[in-house]
Design goal:
Farnesyl Diphosphate Synthase, magnesium, Isoprenoid_synthase_dom_sf, mainly alpha, EC 2.5.1.90, about 325 residues, Octaprenyl diphosphate synthase, single chain
Length: about 325
């Protein structure tokens, strides 16, 4: 997602400090580590999660210096997961560029991902807040479990919608939740506000992932930086496929199950016809919008401010983006 410039503009100084902090923290005695880390961090990422940290801190009028390394460590954890994901998924393109594993191989990509994880935890120690450390220790565990759970469901057409929501809550929404909750903790928010900001991040992350699921079958390859149907090619049973199997004819369900088990794009045209005819894409869009609306409701605990408005706008943009 590319948030509107107005979202960045109101934290422009913080965002510039964040980018500088990221560059400073990428230094390594091993040239290849630094080269790969800089490549992936600078590969057109939108810095959504660290931007959320900055907006939440500002919404509480928190000007603590620690907000910058907190935002940076979120980006490092996210980038590490991307490096590992691309190896697991055998991806060769992300954001319209070669993946690190495609350029340098799987082993260096995994190890640089580990470097970014450990650098993130060094920043947590620098911040020196045990509650924040606890949030990210739990988050990285949950994210790892979500990745393994997704891996076990590849080419498995029997997964239910409820099971799928559990996967994306762990795999995607967890880091959004950690970002917003930890920013609230750093800002000295009360327990009710901390819980509400955690909920906001969770619902926002779910909305974002469901929109990704939708765009995989409705998006444009050039703007997305990946090919339409990539999830199907990898045998991933995302919500559009799950819904199509649940509401289509037995013949429809049989074909979608076959496509998931087989992987690849041989049956893409038939699958696209089914998910459109059954309304599975509209259903996925509706679910994404429901999550975005819940995210905005969670913001009611915040005092009114331009930063609160931008957090609400963030939720709207999550489900209106085309990439």
């Amino acid at each position: 997602m590319q948030p509107k410039s107005s979202i960045h503009d109101i934290v422009a100084d913080d965002f510039a400090a964040l980018n500088q902090n990221i560059l400073d923290q990428l230094h390594s005695r091993v040239p290849l580590v630094e080269k790969i880390a800089e490549y992936i961090v600078d590969s057109g990422g939108k810095r959504m999660r660290p931007l959320l940290v900055l907006l939440v801190c500002r919404s509480f009028n928190c000007l603590k210096e620690e907000r910058i390394p907190l935002a940076a460590l979120v980006e490092f954890i996210h980038t590490a997961t991307l490096l590992h994901d691309d190896v697991v998924d055998e991806s060769d393109m992300r954001r319209g560029r070669d993946t690190a594993n495609n350029k340098w191989g799987n082993a260096p990509s995994v190890l640089v991902g580990d470097f970014l994880y450990t650098r993130a935890f060094e920043l947590m120690v620098q911040i020196g807040n045990m509650d924040i450390l606890k949030i990210y220790a739990n988050a990285t565990n949950v994210i790892s479990e979500g990745e393994v759970l997704q891996l076990t469901n590849v080419r498995n057409p029997k997964i239910t919608e409820e099971q799928y929501m559990t996967v994306i809550k762990a795999k995607t929404a967890m880091l959004f939740e950690a970002a917003t909750e930890s920013a609230a903790v750093l800002s000295g928010a009360n327990p009710e506000q901390q819980k509400a900001l955690a909920d906001y991040g969770n619902y926002l992350g779910l909305a974002f992932q469901l929109q990704d699921d939708l765009l995989d079958y409705r998006g444009d390859a050039q703007s997305m930086g990946k090919n339409v149907g990539d999830d199907l090619a990898e045998g991933k049973p995302t919500l559009p496929l799950i819904r199509a199997m649940a509401t289509g004819t037995e013949e429809d369900a049989k074909l979608v199950r076959k496509a998931i088990r087989k992987g690849g794009l041989e049956l893409l045209d038939e699958v696209l016809e089914i998910i459109n005819r059954t309304g599975a894409l509209d259903y996925t869009e509706q679910k994404a919008c429901e999550m975005a609306d819940k995210a905005k409701v969670a913001l009611e605990c915040l005092p009114d401010s331009v930063y609160k408005e931008r957090l609400a706008l963030f939720a709207d943009l999550a489900v209106k983006r085309s990439a």
